[in-house]
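seq as requested:
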Amino acid sequence: MAERIKLNKVSLRQQKQRLAMYQRFLPALEARKQQFLMELAIVRKEIATEEERLRIVMEKISAWASLYGDVGPLVKPFIEIKEVKSRIRNIAGLKVPQFQGVVFDDPAYSFFATPASFDEVMRQSREAIERREKIRLLRKQESILFEGFRKTSQRINLYEQRLIPACREALRKISVYLQDQQAAAVGVAKAAKRMQETADEQDTAA
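struct tokens:
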């Protein structure tokens, strides 16, 4: 239901204040929207880079399939994720997680009791897992940033397409009404003055 506009000077002042506020907020919202776009471009580029790096690692792992078959059971305890480290970065008011690294379980093992390929297989496996976890967090960043961009765009559209035009239309209506009222008041005053002058003339003649 549309707000009923009061046609008076108080309402005129309120509408002017609202219009000024909306126009003051718009540049900040536009800047926020541009920041989200810029950050989204950075994150999407980083996702593509990390996906390519993961692909290369996975190709190496595939090429060493026989080695993984030999040492896979030995490596498994060493690729268990203990913690995915991250920190929160504030981007235009949004809390966006930033990848810091993966901490793996690191049980003791004997260098002489494991195959020669063990260290390389463990390293490649950990790298693949770390790339995967980084991509997962980057996609979370992308989702948060896109939602921020979407909501900011909606608010800009609300201001530009509804609130600001509504204020301007309200100001126009109130101004026209007040001008008409003023003109009517002037007309009434002139008519009253003429009537008084006529009455005075008649009194003088009598």
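DSSP finds three helices and two strands in the chain.
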